[in-house]
Every structure is written in structure tokens, then in C-alpha cells.
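Possible regression after last week's pipeline update?

I re-ran a chain I had predicted before the update to compare outputs. Posting the input and the new output here so someone can diff against the archived version. Not blocking, just want to make sure nothing changed silently.
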Amino acid sequence: MTPARSSAAARPRSPRGEGERLREEILAAAETLLLRTGSEDAVSIRAVADAVGVTAPSIYRHFPDKSHLLFDVCALHFARMADFIENTAESSDDPLLAIRHMADAYVRFGTENPEHYRIMFMGPSDHTPEQYADEQVLETGAFGSLVALVQRAIDGGQLRPELTDAATIAHVLWASVHGVVSLAVAKPNMPGPPLDELVRTLTNALLDGIRRVV
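New output (post-update):
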């Protein structure tokens, strides 16, 4: 009996020079699967290949494994988030108010894109592709914008005089907001205050704790 043809066989081999287009189609298909299922486990190489209409080896020519594929999908979202947060950072002449806006934007992004956030920030480091290694987080536009805002607050005399290391303060602020997002992503049904109230209370506590008292 002749074996049934897979859905991948329906697509002819891409002409020379169309590799980038195929890569974009693969990313789009993986993104659709991730959003539709809400689970990275459902985004297998075979499922993506079937959705695009290619064979699994065609996927591997662009992505060495599933982890690289998923992180590249999420990176597109995080690039947009970084742009949005950088614009937010410029929304106020008051750096502390801009930090508050950044926190709101960060929480909104994380909770509206839970699987993307989980993959990028909540998975084990040994499964993370090299280009998305932990140290790369500190080189993103979003974190750099936060450090710059903290430095502006220091230079403007808005923070307590003993707080002089902008990077350390930024780490504390980010880790705190990350904790809220991680809890919301991992335990979305856990009883507690509404998310906007939780974020508002957190940012009040954080900013009051570092603000210079006059």
C-alpha cells in the first residue's frame, strides 16, 4: 500500500532566495499555535511544519531546535514591548512618574502575553538559547531605559542620598515587578486584590522607599 502523503508534501520546495520568507512563515505559524493553544508544549516542530506545509527538516534549516524557534517568536513581542516601554519612559519629565508608567506597561504586557513571558523569563536557564542568555536581559532597551530613568532621578536629587547605584536600584525595581507578573502568570486564579490595585500598591511602596524625604 502506498503511504499517505503528509500535509507537508502539499507545499513545493521554496525557490532559491525565498528562505527569509519561509522563516517568517515558520515564525508566524509557531506564533499562531502558541496563541491558540496557550501552551509551548503544543508547539512542536512537526505541528509547525504541518501548519506551514513543509517537512520538519525545512524547519531545522532555519532553527536548530524548538527552543530557538520559541524564543525567536517571543523576541518579536519583546522587541515591541521594549519600543513601547522606551516611549513610555519619555512620556514624563518626572523620571519617577515615568518609572510608574513603565511598571504599568510591563505588567500589562506580561499578563496579556503569559506564554511569551513564561518562555522568556520563567523557564530554566539551561534551556535558553545563547543569544537569549540571562545576561542579555540586562542589555535590552527596556532595562536600559529603566536604568537611565533611575540615573536621572539620582542626578535630579529625587532619591535618598545613600542610593547612588542606578543599576542596583533598577534591578530591585524590575525584580519586584517581575514577581507580580510571574505570580499572575503562574497562578492566575490565586485569590488576592485586583491586579491594578496590586501594582499600584507595589509601585507606591517601591518609589516611596527610594524617594528623598524633604
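Follow-up from reviewer: compared with the archived run. Residues 14-60 form a domain with the Arc Repressor Mutant, subunit A fold (CATH 1.10.10). Marking as no regression found.
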